[in-house]
Amino acid sequence: MTTSERKRRMPRAERERQMMGVAEEIFAERGYAAVSMDEIAERCGVSKPMIYEYFGSKEGLLVACIRAARADLSKCTLEAVAGAGSVEEALRRGLVAFFDFTDTHRRSWSLMLRNEAALAGPVAIAEVEEARREQVELDITLFAAFVPDKPRTELEMLAQILVGACERLSLWYVNQSEVTAAQAADMLMSVLWSGVAGDIPPG
Amino acid sequence: MTTSERKRRMPRAERERQMMGVAEEIFAERGYAAVSMDEIAERCGVSKPMIYEYFGSKEGLLVACIRAARADLSKCTLEAVAGAGSVEEALRRGLVAFFDFTDTHRRSWSLMLRNEAALAGPVAIAEVEEARREQVELDITLFAAFVPDKPRTELEMLAQILVGACERLSLWYVNQSEVTAAQAADMLMSVLWSGVAGDIPPG
DNA sequence: GAGTCCAGCTTACCCGGAGTAGGTTACTTG
DNA sequence: CAAGTAACCTACTCCGGGTAAGCTGGACTC
């Protein structure tokens, strides 16, 4: 970040990445509504119309950020699941990867969860919902292998339960210093495996 | 709603209720960001400064609506739980009451869940979070009676898991015609009781 | 029934931030 | 070097949250 670097022209792809980086940071920190496009532009060392040129609208920028963050998350969990030998192991690895992600990429996670409800336009909402859907589909696939006799509707319900539990749990545990990602994953795993009365297995 | 009725002066409490009713309806329908204060004022047959007089800001109005809706929900679930003979029954009754509420009071529910993330001001966020906290506390109490040997931290995690699962599940199932509130409650009950492999008990 | 008080109400404005029209600059390519 | 175009800018419009300042009608006193 040399001073001479700061006002150089950039090719579109690079500028887009920069804009999304800046946006992700301050959207996650202060919330979508509290951030102005002028501020984002200024921090990029560029004027406002450039952002509109590349992202169309403030909502468009947020959607792009959320989709990118979701893609990262999906990539992490998918990779973790891919290396597993059994279905149970896949589930556990997926959970650990998820909580690790929410712990190490707090900005991205806060961006996704705290701002997706700030969207108003139906198209934007649909696009974000579509990005979230990947998560649900992965869980359905896992459950389908885990309990093959259940009908699709029940698998879908199980997946929704899991996704909701993951989200709330991670929102809660980022403020708790004494709980680790692995513990959260274990807790959830134990509930899924044998209900609330089940013991937490050793890490 | 006679024509002569429409422009009468109202005492503050009554006007506040009317404003919150109007706001709840259109916030839930179109989302916080897409609704203007002028529109709310017009629908109330009153001018904008009146709303500011009573609620301070647009956020203040939303917070008031969310808190009222949360209070309704809390009342329903608490009443349902109160009449139970065993802890297990309390849990089941609470779940059924919850899903019934989200099904029959869709406006209130949509208001709470879809708009709480639209808040930007820290005080507003804290107030809403406080309202949600009641739900978590109830669940902790139930789990504490259910699995008395577990430490507080684990009970808290279980409660977060349950709340998250309830929220996601209800968000999903309001769009599904073939799933009833009772089925959703049963599904969740079965998972909590014996994990994902457990059968759904007969209604 | 004239005076006064104040809760409920209004008009008319400010201002910040989303979004845009139209023009300028510098890099590439023949 | 001329031409073309991708990156960029200045200078606006307009909408919506929020406010200042004043009006009104009914309740309550004397």
Order of helices and strands of chain A: HHHHHHHHH
What's the rounded overall pLDDT mean of chain A? 93
Strand content of chain A: under 5%
Show the largest interface: A-B, 49 and 49 residues
> The CATH topology of the domain at 65-194 in chain A is what?
Tetracycline Repressor, domain 2
Describe this structure in words.
Two copies of one chain form a homodimer. Chain A is an all-alpha fold. The first copy, chain A, is elongated. Chain A is 73% helix and 0% strand. Chain A has a domain at 65-194: Tetracycline Repressor, domain 2. The N and C termini of chain A lie far apart (42 Å). The first copy, chain A, has nine helices and no strands. In chain A, 38% of the residues are buried. The mean pLDDT of chain A is 93. In chain A, helix 1 crosses helix 6, helix 4 packs across helix 5 and helix 7 (122-146) packs across helix 8. The first copy, chain A, has helices at residues 12-30, 37-44, 48-55, 58-82, 87-104, 106-115, 122-146, 152-173, 181-194. Chains A and B meet through helix 6, helix 8 and helix 9 of A and helix 6, helix 8 and helix 9 of B. Chain A binds a DNA duplex (30 and 30 nucleotides) through residues 9-12, 15, 36-38, 46-50, 52-53, 57-58.
